[in-house]
Amino acid sequence: MRVLIAGGSGFLGSALSERLVHDGAAVTWLSRTPGKTRAPDAIEVRGYDALAPEDAWDAVVNLAGAGITDRRWSEARKRELIDSRLGPTRTLLDWMRTCIDKPRVLLSGSAVGWYGDRGDTPLTESSDFHDEFAHRLCAQWEAAALEAEAMDVPVVLLRTGIVLHPDGGMLKRLLPPFRLGLGGRLGDGTQVLSWIAREDWVKAVRFLIGLHLDDAASAGPRGVFNLTAPAPVTNAEFTAALAHAVGKSVFLPVPAPALKLGFGEMSTLLLDGQRVLPKRLAEAGFEFRHPQLAPYLRSLL
């Protein structure tokens, strides 16, 4: 099994790469700065401009993109978030149009932000959306990836929730204040957090790759998959579970106006919510190792 990963050195890509190498796969990272990208010895690093028609990978995983919470959303930053996703995706598509042996599947990143603020409404892969920047960002990324379908390359869209692991992402940022006893809910705490353990995210992506590569006699699934745990929680429930896991009390809440003042439009990621459910994963027979938040956090911390 040969797998090309765009964004392989990141929080998710590195964990997925470790699992694939463990499974015996030949993994290549696609990088904008190949000379500066450090990878484990078993992984090749390639620049985007080095893609050639004779290159052949069984699966392509597209995770490239600037971090959505790294900086406040100015208009310039919004453009950067869009371009950092569409640019690599279009480069991959240009390569696929020329390559001799096309990949058997393209798994392309997206996020539950596609649904926008939907409150407490249960959301599956067939649910509608609320139009806002997070939706438009994800929608453009997904639309670009789906162009591979015209080349007979099946596309799987990975609508990922908040991925939890101490190595990075939201949990890494929250642990220092919570360990000091300064963690508190955000706003009124009723907004729903659709989360997933990083171990389960890796397991789910490997599972979806396997549905395309492990059985050559059957066609693998296409389209949207929600990569979220089956039991979303409110922000208040998350706050209580994390505080308990580190042995501290919950501190004062952070008022919504303060978050809006500090983060601007990006505060929607903190104050709005989606109750996203992994319906298609369940229908495909996937089993979560960490379906519940509190036991997962206790096992980690």
Topology diagram in text:
Elements: E1 2-6, H1 11-22, E2 26-31, E3 44-47, E4 59-62, H2 75-98, E5 105-111, E6 122-123, H3 133-146, E7 155-160, E8 162-164, H4 169-179, E9 192-193, E10 195-197, H5 198-213, E11 223-227, E12 233-234, H6 235-245, H7 256-263, H8 268-271, E13 275-276, H9 279-283, H10 293-300
Parallel strand pairs: 1-2, 1-4, 2-3, 4-5, 5-7, 6-13, 7-11, 8-10
Antiparallel strand pairs: 9-12
Helix pairs in contact: 1-5, 2-3, 6-10
Structural class by SSE content = alpha/beta
pLDDT averaged over residues? 94
**Uncertain parts:** none
Strand content: 15-25%
- SSE order: EHEEEHEEHEEHEEHEEHHHEHH
Distinct helical segment count:
10
Global geometry: globular
The end-to-end span amounts to 34 Å
- Biggest sheet, strands in spatial order? 3-2-1-4-5-7-11
Largest sheet descriptor: 7 strands, parallel
**Compute the gyration radius: what is it?**
19 Å
Tally the beta strands: 13
Q: What is the percent of helical residues?
A: 25-40%
Q: Name the quaternary structure.
A: single chain
Molecular structure report:
- With about 300 residues, the protein is an alpha/beta fold.
- About 40% of the residues lie in helices and about 15% in strands.
- The chain is built from ten helices and 13 strands.
- The protein has helices spanning about 10-20, 75-100, 135-145, 170-180, 200-215, 235-245, 255-265, 270, 280-285, 295-300, and strands spanning about 1-5, 25-30, 45, 60, 105-110, 120-125, 155-160, 160-165, 190-195, 195, 225, 235, 275.
- The strands form four sheets. Strands 3-2-1-4-5-7-11 form a seven-stranded parallel sheet, with helices on both faces. It has a two-stranded parallel ribbon with strand order 6-13. The protein has a two-stranded parallel ribbon with strand order 8-10.
- Helix 1 (about 10-20) packs across helix 5, helix 2 (about 75-100) runs parallel beside helix 3 and helix 6 runs parallel beside helix 10.
- The relative contact order is 0.14.
- The model has no long low-confidence stretch (mean pLDDT about 95).
